[in-house]
Amino acid sequence: MNRRRAIALAGIGVVGAGAAASAAALLRDDHPATAGASGAVEFYGEQQAGIVTLAQDRLHFVAFDVVTKSRDRLVEMLREWTEAAARMAAGKDAGLIGAVDGIPEAPPDDTGEALGLPPSGLTLTIGFGPSLFRNADGVDRFGLAAQRPAALADLPRFPGDALDPKISGGDLCVQACANDPQVAVHAIRNLARIGFGTVSVRWSQLGFGRTSSTSTAQATPRNLFGFKDGTANLKAEEEGLLRDHLWVQPGDGPSWMEGGSYSVTRKIRMLVETWDRTPLAEQEAIVGRAKGSGAPLGGKDEFDEPDFAVKGEDGEPTIAEVAHVRLAHPDQNGGARLLRRGYNFVDGSDGLGRLNAGLFFIAYQRDPRKQFVPVQTALARNDVMNEYIRHVSSGLFACPPGVREKGDFWGRALFG
Amino acid sequence: MRTHRILALAAAGALAGGALAACSDDAGSEGDAAAGPIVVNATDSVCEVATTDVDAGTVTFKVTNKGVKVTEFYVYAQGDRVMGEVENIAPGLSRELHVELPAGTYETACKPGMVGKGIRGALKVNGSAAPLTADAALASATESYQRYVKSQTGALLEQTQQFVAAVKGGDVAKAKELFPIARTYWERIEPVAEIFGDLDPKIDGREEVIEEGMEFTGFHRIEKDLWTTGDISKDGPLADKLMADVNEIVAKANAEKLSPLQLANGAKELLDEVASGKITGEEDRYSHTDLWDFAANLEGSKAAIASLRPALEQRAPELVTQLDTEFANVETTLGKHRAGDGWKLHNQLNQDELKELSDSINALAEPISKVAAVVAK
Question: Which residue numbers delimit the EfeO-type cupredoxin-like domain (chain B) (predicted)?
Answer without folding.
Answer: 18-123
